[in-house]
């Protein structure tokens, strides 16, 4: 009996020690992860010259233009700040006039002080931003198995590449999106695929995980293989404009059958190899060429909508939440879409260059009206209500 009791006591000690060791290991792992997040925050959140508490509830810091996070990236150690795109010749763009004064793009902006060398606005990053941003990056980069992604987009074929940029005017909406989901309208340039995907996109999106609200925000995404992020959640993008910034809240969006708000967007590669983002008429900043492994030029450019939802859930609305019907006040659209060639001239796509891709026709639609609405340039609509897209 005594021997049996001793054996039982020994087993209990082993179980307790094993549990204690496992718990200690978990705590140690969590502590290491927490320390890594703190380290990233210290790099991303620089000492501000001035800060703005935005009405929507976040903080924007004005940072010395030469001390922003991108310059801590090891690939940009010797990078020299570029304040505007450099082209061999001046590029003249035909200005696209909105159909009414109510079609203005309404964005929450700040005005950072000039300072000695100039300061730029950067939305302050929180620990939660980093955690949620990593999940969404993996979902956007198609490496998150627990997420479902759907597209309704128009893109230009590889056969007509290379491309040196893309532009277009899109209507801005606020589709209903639940936590864990996102819905966007964007344009993009890319090269490669899989683990060697190089991509830049810019547009508007609703992403409760990223912003802790259901509002619409201006955003950008970049990836070079497994490196990259949304907005300024990692080192890379170099901000140069003093007022427009990534992650900013769009305070007014379009309404079905009512006022339409829209924005002109552009991604272009200049002669130094850097990829510039333009919002409306402002070059807000650029992604240095050194960040990318193969994005010397783009072998595909595209425009349209994109949604993400956790596996096992129904997909959110895309665009306005309504299917295309040619009425610009009903469904989300891109108009005056153009690609940039090697000498950075803007061209309308030729029909043979264009592919339409909609991987969830039960949830979303995409209709190309390029022959019907000459007043809107190359024009198409996309979007729909979402739902169970695979049933």
From TrEMBL:
Secretion signal span: 1-20
Alphabetized UniProt keyword annotations: Signal
Residues of the Neprosin PEP catalytic domain: 144-390
Pfam families for this protein: Neprosin (PF03080), Neprosin_AP (PF14365)
Keyword Signal found: yes
PROSITE patterns cross-referenced by the UniProt entry: NEPROSIN_PEP_CD (PS52045)
Origin: domain of life: Eukaryota
Record-given protein name: Neprosin PEP catalytic domain-containing protein
């Amino acid at each position: 009996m005594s021997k049996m009791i001793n054996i039982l006591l020994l087993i209990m000690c082993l179980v307790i020690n094993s549990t204690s060791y496992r718990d200690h290991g978990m705590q140690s792992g969590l502590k290491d992860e927490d320390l890594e997040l703190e380290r990233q925050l210290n790099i991303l959140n620089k000492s501000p010259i001035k800060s703005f508490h935005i009405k929507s509830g976040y903080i924007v810091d004005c940072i010395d233009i030469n001390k922003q996070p991108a310059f801590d990236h090891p690939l940009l150690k010797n990078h020299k700040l570029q304040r505007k795109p450099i082209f061999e010749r001046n590029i003249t763009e035909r200005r696209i006039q909105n159909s009414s004064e109510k079609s203005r793009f309404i964005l929450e902006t700040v005005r950072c002080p000039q300072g000695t060398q100039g300061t730029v606005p950067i939305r302050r990053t929180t620990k939660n931003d980093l955690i949620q941003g990593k999940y969404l990056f993996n979902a956007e980069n198609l490496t998150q198995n627990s997420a479902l992604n759907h597209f309704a987009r128009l893109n230009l074929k590889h056969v007509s590449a290379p491309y040196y940029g893309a532009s277009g005017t899109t209507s801005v909406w606020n589709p209903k999106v639940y936590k864990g989901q996102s819905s966007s309208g964007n344009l993009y340039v890319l090269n490669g695929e899989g683990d060697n995907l190089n991509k830049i996109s810019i547009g508007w999106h609703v992403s409760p995980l990223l912003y802790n609200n259901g509002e619409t925000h201006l955003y950008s995404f970049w990836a070079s293989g497994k490196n990259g992020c949304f907005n300024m959640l990692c080192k890379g993008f170099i901000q140069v404009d003093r007022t427009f910034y990534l992650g900013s809240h769009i305070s007014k969006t379009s309404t079905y059958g009512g006022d339409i708000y829209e924005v002109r967007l552009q991604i272009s590669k200049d002669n130094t190899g850097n990829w510039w983002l333009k919002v409306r008429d402002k070059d807000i900043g650029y992604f240095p060429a050194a960040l990318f492994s193969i994005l010397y030029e783009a072998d595909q450019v595209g425009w349209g909508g994109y949604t993400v939802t956790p596996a096992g859930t129904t997909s959110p609305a895309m665009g306005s939440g309504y299917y295309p019907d040619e009425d610009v006040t009903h469904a989300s659209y891109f108009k005056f879409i153009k690609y940039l060639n090697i000498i950075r001239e803007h061209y309308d796509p030729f029909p043979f260059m264009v592919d339409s891709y909609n991987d969830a026709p039960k949830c979303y639609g995409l209709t190309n009206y390029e022959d019907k609405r000459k007043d809107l340039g190359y024009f198409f609509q996309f979007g729909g209500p979402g739902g169970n897209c695979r049933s």
